[in-house]
Each structure stands twice: as C-alpha cells, then as structure tokens.
Amino acid sequence: MTTELISNAKQWARTIKRDVHAVWLAARDPRTPWFAEVLAMIVAAYAVSPIDLIPDFIPVLGYVDDIIIVPLGILLVVKLTPPEVMNEHRATADAASERPVSRIAAGVFIAIWFFFATFLARMLL
Q1: pTM for this model (two decimals)
Q2: Do residues 89 and 31 lie in contact, with contact meaning Cβ atoms separated by under 8 Å?
Q3: Quick check: 77 and 26 in contact, CB under 8 A?
Q4: What is the C-alpha to C-alpha distance for residues 104 and 107, in angstroms, rounded to an integer?
C-alpha cells in the first residue's frame, strides 16, 4: 500500500511538472486565447517562483498552497486552452523531460557561482 501511494505521488508530481512546462508553452502560443495566456503565465510563474502565498517553512500549510493552487491553476488553463494546443505542448514538454541533463554545464555554473561567492567574500572581509 505504501509503495503504491509513493509511486502514485511521484507520477502525480511528474504530471504537474510536465503540465507547468506545457502551460508555459501554451502561454506563448498565438492560438491560445488572451485570457488563458495571462492565466497561464501567472500559473507557470507561481509554480516556479520561490515566493509563495504561504511560506514553505510553515508546517503543513506551507505546502498546501502548492498542492492546491498550482494544480487548480493548471486545470483552469487546460479548460480555457484549445485541446489541440495543450496536447501539442504536453508532447513537447514530455520530449523535453526525456533529454539528458548536462552535468558538465551544471558543474560550470556551480564553479562560476563559487568563484563569485569567494570573490565577494574576500572583498567584504
């Protein structure tokens, strides 16, 4: 029972992640109605923003807004967007998630941040 619940939660999270990407793509598509574009931009920005209505450090309530607001926003955008547009962008988001992650590029960015953090620390101390 527990492993099935964990598996379902992981699948749900992957679906939400894919749909956030698809909603962002739909927001930039000229076939999407303007009101759905605006809502899609808001939902996608909220989903990836580190700023929440209820901060995540507040026990339980901090994650409730992410669990409720983002899926409801996605659901509303999907209802307002033509089905063929959403299907196309979901397929694009699926393909993007299957691409390999460049660990070298991540290492380069980490090295750059480390260099600037060290430089800044030496300048301030």
Answers
A1: 0.68
A2: no
A3: yes
A4: 5
CB atoms closer than 10 angstroms to residue 120: 10
CA angle 110, 112, 118 (to 5 degrees): 100
What angle, 0 to 180 degrees and rounded to 10, lies between the N-to-C axes of helices 2-27 and 34-48? 130
pLDDT tens sequence for the chain (125 residues): 678 888 888 888 888 889 999 999 999 999 999 999 999 999 988 888 877 777 777 777 778 777 888 899 999 999 999 999 999 999 999 888 776 667 787 788 788 888 988 988 888 87
Residue 8: CB partners within 8 Å, gap ≥ 6?
none
Integer Cα distance of 16 and 55 in angstroms: 20
H-type helices in 28-102, by residue range? 34-48, 61-80, 83-98
Q: Which helix (H) or strand (E) holds 18?
A: helix 2-27
